[in-house]
TrEMBL record:
Domain Fibronectin type-III, residue spans: 1-69, 73-167
SUPFAM superfamilies: Fibronectin type III
Organism this protein belongs to: Chionoecetes opilio (Atlantic snow crab)
Protein name, entry field: Down syndrome cell adhesion molecule-like protein Dscam2
Alphabetized PANTHER family for the sequence: FIBRONECTIN TYPE-III DOMAIN-CONTAINING PROTEIN, SUSHI DOMAIN-CONTAINING PROTEIN 1
Length: 174
């Protein structure tokens, strides 16, 4: 939320990077709250007075940034059998990270076993893949990934299911 204070009869402009995306807010108050702003986004704001004599001169732009939030889910999660007991999981960053990604967490567990605990591996933000090894042959596994910012852990990715066979080939299920 951004608050700007000035003299009455003001127009507030939120000007994202492209000039075509301009919002005008007219108010007679000395302050206003801007709503519906995107997370972790730079904005330029200008004010001008408007009287019966016409519009005044726009102020110099005020540059500000909205706060970080938790990220959306990583996208394009894929799994590939690498050996008889390992699976490589890869993903792409979230479409809207809503901040600076501080880490990814890969979760996995044996599919269909309610007593099976989630295994998790925390990774650097530059890593977009992880090889889970030491898996049991012929067992099915489910994988998912999250991204985190300083605000916290974001949404879960889509689930990817994979089953190892004796020979290291795989069967994909949904």
């Amino acid at each position: 939320m951004l608050i700007l204070c000035h003299q009455p009869q003001l127009e507030f402009f939120s000007l994202p990077a492209d000039e075509e995306s301009k919002d005008i807010k007219i108010t007679s108050s000395t302050e206003t709250h801007l709503h519906g702003l995107q997370k972790y986004t730079n904005y330029s704001l200008q004010v001008l007075a408007h009287t019966s004599g016409g519009e005044g001169v726009r102020s110099q732009p005020i540059h500000c940034q909205t706060d970080q939030d938790i990220p959306e889910a990583p996208t394009s999660v894929k799994a590939l059998v690498m050996s008889a007991d390992s699976i490589l999981v890869s993903w792409l960053p979230p479409e809207r990270p809503n901040g600076i990604i501080t880490q990814y967490t890969v979760y996995y567990k044996e599919h269909g076993k309610s007593d099976s605990e989630d295994t998790q591996q925390k990774l650097l933000p530059s890593q977009l893949s992880f090889e889970a090894s030491g898996l049991k042959r012929r067992d099915a596994y489910v994988f998912w990934v999250t991204a985190s910012t300083t605000v916290g852990e974001g949404e879960l990715s889509e689930l990817v299911h994979l089953k190892l066979s004796n020979k290291g080939s795989y069967n994909r299920s949904s």
